[in-house]
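Researcher: Let's walk through a ligand-bound prediction step by step. First, I give you the protein sequence. Second, the SMILES string for pyridoxal-5'-phosphate. Third, you return the three-dimensional complex as structure tokens. Ready?
Model: Ready.
Researcher: Here are steps one and two:
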Amino acid sequence: MAISIKITKTTHSRINTCDFNNIQFGTVFSDHMFVVDYEDGNWINPEILPFGPLSLSPSTFALHYGQAIFEGMKAYKNTNGEAQLFRPKDNIKRLNQSAKRMAMAELPEEIFMEGLKQLIAIDSNWIPTKSGSSLYIRPYMFATDEFVGVRPAKHFKFVIFTCPVNAYYPKPIRVVVEEKYVRAFDGGVGATKAAGNYGISMLPTYEANQKGFDQIIWTDGREHKYIEESGTMNVFFVIGDKVITPLLDGTILEGITRNSCIKLLQNKGYTVEERKISVDEIVDASNKGVLKDAFGTGTAAIVAKIAAINYKGVDYKLPNPEEREVSNYLYKTLGEIQTGLIPDNFNWIERVN
Ligand SMILES: *Cc1c(COP(=O)(O)O)cnc(C)c1O
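Model: Step three, the predicted complex:
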């Protein structure tokens, strides 16, 4: 079934006010947005319109009860100047997994893909072309019932807006193993991209920043013994010639970048172990001089190298960033696939047309 989207184009494009070589991440928004509402069991009124305020009742359900989920993804221009997306179907699949756990309506893949592609096509001039730059895409859904009272909401709004972003070259990050707070626990929502997962991480991250760390290494909620994620990224370690990442046990978000990294590494002949990994194992590997690499993965930074891991007041340092075989290979290769510089052997790219 073809989806018909009402389109209202802006008469006042802001594109000439954007300095595409100097964008502060997440502060510049493209001209249009996609919006669709859920009512009486149906998704209705899909619309692309000028980016602007949403009108909401003060009783909007999501604002007090937190039924809110989101996604993060990117569009790129390939070497022929055509707009393309990286693994978008994995984002809608994950959005719907989040929706299910949060008792929210699932969005049909066709509505997501059609709204997304038309939005990116309309704002394709906003996709930066400078190396490492891209158009960051923020899809999200929240409960819009005008209601006070606790039961799953019946009305939802799904929105997509986009932001041009420059390469996010973080200098290698200093991380600290968190032993007080937890991000997720068995039976909770750690595996979903629920807005609340970010809400609860603000204070612990702020406190870590105050102590001079860039990010937290989250540990399990029972013993603070096993490593889960690094901030809002999945995390990988290279010990000797093995690449290790925590297994998905319900408390870890299944990153699309994580999955892409595992596939690229396996394809190159690396042994990748998805298993529990304790902080003690990392400390031990560092003491023996076999901890070769450690990095976070996620759509925004792609790969963020870890410079040092602090545990109980001791810094465990990692090799020079330039010498890191695995993280350098992944950062370079993912970037080349996303912009069409090398063939897409995994079928990860979807053209916008
Ligand atoms: C979004 C997210 C990631 C990274 O997922 P990608 O699909 O690779 O962007 C990792 N951890 C958490 C907690 C996240 O919310």
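Researcher: And what stands out?
Model: DSSP finds eight helices and 18 strands in the chain. Residues 121 and 352 are 6 Å apart (CA to CA).
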